Amino acid sequence: MTRDAATEVVGVEERDGAIVRDVRIAADDAPIEAYLVEPTPAGGASSGVATPVGQDGPGLLFAHWYDPQAPNGNRTEYLDEAIAWARERGATAILPQLRFPWAADPEGSSADAARIREEVTRLRRCLDALLADPGVGTRRIGVVGHDFGAMHAILLATEDRRPKAYVAVAAVPRWGDWFLPFWTIDEDRIEYLRALRPLDPIEHAGRAAPAKLLFQFGLRDWYIAPMASFEFRRAAGESAAVESYEAEHDMASPEAREDRTRFLEAALAAL
Questions:
Q1: To the nearest 10°, the Cα dihedral for 135, 141, 142, 147?
Q2: φ, ψ for residue 198 (rounded to 5)?
Q3: Domain layout of the chain by residue ranges
Q4: pTM of the full predicted structure?
Q5: 59: Cβ–Cβ under 8 A, 6 or more apart, which residues?
Q6: Superfamily for the 7-269 domain
């Protein structure tokens, strides 16, 4: 069970060999809704309290994608993957519900920059809750993010050195690459891009080391130009790997899942 007193458990169930807790993590402005997934302890989950099945296990943070029409465009996206990690590898995972731009539209560089920073702060709070679990090894932390979740995760890599490996799935180099084409922003385009540049993932990818990076892209992704993968490869340097798959923007690719599992296992195994 998590030892973080600021994490409230509001629901618990046993699923496919794992304990899935619906939790609320205290944060400065509003609680973070998340799933906390842990290995099933001896005796099952009937009490709602799990004892650690082992020390120094992997800990994972999963940050979901943005698609208001998709049933998994929320914290459920990686739930099955997290359960598999718990069941097969004794891992603990946290899957927060993200807010920007899910709960608030981009509207201008000042407000958008503040919301991006807030989101990264909330991800750091999720890491606090994850590392409070007694079964998690403090040096065996990995992060998986998709779409906007990946972009926030890349910024996390330079704000918080606790994670040792990151998988960025279908990220774009700049916030403006998404916000300017798909939202109405009453601000000069060049000024907007200039104001958000310090927060653009492409500006942070090269500073993530010594954390290991894996970028994953879909060859049939209508939204992301192939050039994005080359930009990230060049920016991140030798610390990063870039892989592409026969997938669309949802990245529903078994091969991509298998690759990131192998990547994380290798990156976290020696720590």
A1: 90
A2: -60, -20
A3: 7-269
A4: 0.93
A5: 91, 92, 93, 94, 130, 131, 133, 136, 137, 140, 141, 142
A6: Alpha/Beta hydrolase fold, catalytic domain (3.40.50.1820)
18-31 residue pLDDT tens? 999 999 999 988 99
Average pLDDT estimate for 210-224: 96
The amino acid sitting at 228 is: A
Length of the chain: 271
Tokens of 28: 């400065």
Q: What residues contact residue 183 under an 8 Å CB cut-off, 6+ apart?
A: 101, 105, 106, 107
Q: Which residues contact 33 (CB under 8 A, 6 or more apart)?
A: 22, 23, 24, 75, 96, 97
**Separation between Cα atoms, residue 94 and residue 107, nearest integer Å:** 29
Q: Is the dihedral of CA 123, 128, 129, 135 positive or negative?
A: positive
Q: Is the pLDDT of residue 267 over 60?
A: yes
Backbone angles phi, psi at 196, to 5 degrees: -90, -5
